[in-house]
Write a structure and sequence with these properties.
107 residues; alpha/beta; three-stranded parallel sheet; two-stranded parallel sheet; 5 strands
Amino acid sequence: VRTYDPQVALESPGANVTQARSALDACRGADVLIVMTPWREFSEIDAAQIREQMAGRVIIDPFGALDRQRCRALGLTHLRLGSPAAAGSLRDRALPAVLRAAARIFR
């Protein structure tokens, strides 16, 4: 797990967590990107740069910090809190598992 927050640095991130130097650095090699805070810095990053850095193509962006249409145009799966989705969609399968994993890591 790679983390980045422009306002807060982790004092002891833990064995499975590294702190990235920038938002794009946090994307490097990521299978899934989770944007948990709607900082302006995140909304100013071009989705093409994010796609270039990521290994996977799923972005979970509860607050809509990223441009959803741009993400989708680039082949990224952009999941936002409150967005409609068909039953059995990737969001319905992936989000609960990702959140459970995150809860285990940050206990």
